């Protein structure tokens, strides 16, 4: 059995509400085995719940791990307490869950969420990448590396939970770390990817361990001489306001927002503020915004999306990124400042030369590359007719394509 992180293996003799310390070594061993299985099967997620077998999400499909049988509430609680060591477990009483990250077997990082449901504890673990990928591997345009050279401004990665936002940010921060002499301060909940200082000096702070909250840490970071600040997520008024202020005062700020597309990201940020402040925030945002990258993960169902048949005869599929990119040109900034968000998508459609890309354009590229079917593209697109027209245009020989579509998982 690969050795778990020291925090996992440091078992003490404390009693548990629904179990004893004698149960804990076997719980730690089973947890390690399940995490090893997650790595071995190239699964993205591991789910543990009382009364059920553990589940792995392999290439987007949940698969029960029946070999270990149903897990008892005592075993699940023991696993939860092992994971929560060193983290602020008081949030279990206030919000019903605890977030954290740790290094598991084979030195692979996992993000976890321990949560209460119907009086018992359950666990969701997300396996993190064991290396920093290139943008082309993620299926994103290499031109986004230009964002890493900016002296200041706000760069946002948007998308739903599980869309790979943290991985995209990690790739951009790694590029800065390898190519610029900068002081990078990250504020994360939890720390998912560990950045070792290279050309840059990197200081990573974890909410709950190193600081009380995103906004407190962001305010403090302005006194820490940063060049680049990564804020894991901006979701409340004060943190959004401070992030905009940091970008205004000469810092390059990277962050994430839960939103479905680029226009929705702008509207979500503005809508957090009281009505009387929204016009002012639009103007501020138009001055500091540099780019929004909105991404989703799809299960590839085209010819190239097929993996080799498994031993049981099933065929598994890869997961791929579909994305849109909004660059803050003068025209886009004016639309944001004047509250004409509905016209931004038109600017994106005609902004290819500036590095912009619409969701329909990304779907057309994936469809042309045989990663997804016409049907999948039509379901995801805003305008299926536009996707079909662009696929037909891509099929006309025009030399090599600049963008390489990557496989995320």
Structural account:
With 409 residues, this protein is α/β, with parallel strands linked by helices. It has helices at 6-9, 24-40, 73-84, 91-94, 135-138, 165-179, 214-221, 237-248, 262-271, 275-288, 330-337, 344-349, 359-368, 374-380, 384-394; strands spanning 43-48, 55-58, 61-64, 97-103, 109-117, 120-127, 153-158, 183-188, 201-206, 228-231, 252-257, 289-299, 319-327. The protein folds into two domains: 6-127, Beta-Lactamase; 135-394, Rossmann fold, CATH 3.40.50.300. It is built from 15 helices and 13 strands. Helix 2 packs across helix 3 and helix 13 crosses helix 15. Mean pLDDT is 87; it is low at 1-7, 9-24 and 400-404.
Quick structural summary:
The protein is of the alpha/beta class and 409 residues long.
H and E string? HHEEEHHEEEHEHEEHEHEHHEEHHHHH
Assess the beta-strand content as a share of residues.
15-25%
Biggest sheet, spatial arrangement of strands: 9-8-10-11-7-12-13
At the third CATH level, what is the topology name of the largest domain?
A: Rossmann fold
What is the terminal-to-terminal distance?
25 Å
Whole-angstrom Rg: 22 Å
State mean pLDDT (0 to 100 scale).
87
Helix content: 25-40%
CATH class of the largest domain: Alpha Beta
């Amino acid at each position: 059995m690969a050795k778990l992180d020291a925090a996992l293996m440091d078992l003490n003799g404390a009693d548990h509400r629904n179990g004893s310390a004698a149960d804990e070594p076997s719980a730690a061993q089973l947890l390690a085995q399940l995490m090893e299985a997650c790595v071995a099967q190239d699964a993205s997620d591991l789910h543990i719940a009382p009364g059920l077998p553990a589940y792995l999400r392999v290439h987007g499909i949940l698969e029960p791990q029946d070999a270990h049988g149903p897990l008892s509430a005592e075993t699940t609680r023991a696993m939860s307490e092992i994971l929560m060591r060193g983290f602020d477990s008081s949030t279990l009483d206030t919000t019903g869950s605890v977030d954290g990250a740790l290094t598991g077997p084979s030195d692979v990082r996992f993000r976890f969420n321990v949560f209460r449901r119907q009086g018992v504890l359950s666990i969701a673990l997300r396996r993190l990448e064991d290396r920093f990928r290139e943008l082309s591997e993620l299926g994103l345009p290499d031109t986004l590396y230009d964002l890493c050279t900016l002296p200041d401004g706000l760069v946002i990665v948007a998308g739903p939970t599980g869309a790979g936002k943290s991985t995209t940010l990690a790739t951009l921060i790694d590029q800065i770390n390898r190519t610029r002499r900068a002081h990078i301060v990250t504020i994360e909940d939890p720390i998912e990817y560990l950045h070792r200082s290279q050309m840059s000096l990197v200081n990573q702070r974890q909410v709950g361990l190193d600081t009380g909250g995103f906004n407190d840490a962001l305010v403090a970071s302005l006194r820490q001489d940063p060049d680049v600040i990564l804020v894991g997520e901006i979701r409340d008024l004060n943190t959004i306001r401070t992030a905009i202020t940091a970008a205004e005062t000469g810092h390059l700020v990277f962050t994430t927002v839960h939103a479905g597309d680029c226009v929705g990201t702008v509207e979500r940020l503005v809508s957090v503020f009281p009505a009387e402040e929204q016009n002012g925030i639009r103007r501020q945002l138009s001055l500091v915004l540099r780019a929004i990258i909105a991404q989703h993960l799809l299960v590839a169902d085209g010819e190239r999306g097929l993996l080799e048949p498994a031993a049981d005869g099933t065929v598994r599929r890869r997961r791929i990124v579909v994305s849109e990119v909004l660059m803050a040109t003068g025209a886009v900034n004016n639309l944001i400042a004047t509250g004409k968000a509905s016209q931004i998508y038109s600017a994106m459609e005609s902004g290819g030369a500036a590095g912009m890309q619409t969701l329909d354009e990304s779907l057309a590229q994936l469809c042309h590359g045989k990663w997804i079917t016409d049907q999948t593209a039509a379901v995801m697109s805003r305008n299926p007719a536009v996707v079909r027209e662009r696929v037909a245009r891509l099929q006309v020989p025009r030399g090599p394509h600049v963008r390489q579509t990557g496989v995320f998982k």
